[in-house]
Specification:
Blueprint (H helix, E strand, L loop, with lengths): L10 H28 L7 H27 L12 H17 L3 H20 L2 H26 L1
Helix pairs in contact: 1-2, 1-3, 1-4, 2-4, 3-4, 3-5, 4-5
């Protein structure tokens, strides 16, 4: 099988996914900092503080999982995934873009949780959980797209 038909089938492809997870963590961090800086004239509510703390925790876990993928890339090659690497890259790029643009913190948290699920699934080296995790991210991104369309209308 070639790279086009079988994503995560080489060390380089696993490392590319780790790169994408790092980009998502960077986008998440920037978004958290933007939220913190947004309105300093009044203290944030306890709910908002809790949500931002939870996002910081998710960022940390995402970075740890990306680092784990870098460290274990050789052992995490998945030869039977059946998903093109291009699709993996496009989906994670869309997730990073959504994190940058999503208006509601709770929506960011749900999307990041799905990305964390992908990172954990890749660590198993098994195609089935990876495909399921990719489907969850795809569904979450599509739901966010649909939500934005409704708001625009």
């Amino acid at each position: 099988m070639n790279k086009e038909t079988d994503g995560l089938s080489t060390v380089e492809e696993v490392e590319a996914l780790a790169d994408q997870l790092s980009v998502i963590a960077d986008e998440l961090h920037q978004r958290i900092m933007d939220e913190i800086r947004q309105d300093r004239s009044k203290p944030p509510s306890a709910t908002r503080q809790a949500a931002l703390r939870a996002l910081f925790d998710q960022e940390l876990v995402l970075r740890q999982r990306a680092n784990g993928l870098y460290a274990d890339a050789a052992s995490l090659v998945v030869s039977a995934l059946g998903q093109p690497q291009r699709q993996l890259a496009e989906l994670t790029t869309r997730a990073a873009e959504k994190i940058r643009k999503i208006a509601l913190i709770k929506d960011i948290s749900g999307l990041v949780a799905s990305v964390l699920g992908l990172a954990g699934a890749v660590a198993t080296g098994q195609p089935a959980p990876i495909i399921l995790a990719l489907e969850k991210i795809k569904n979450k991104v599509e739901a966010l797209d649909a939500h934005q369309v409704k708001k625009s209308a």
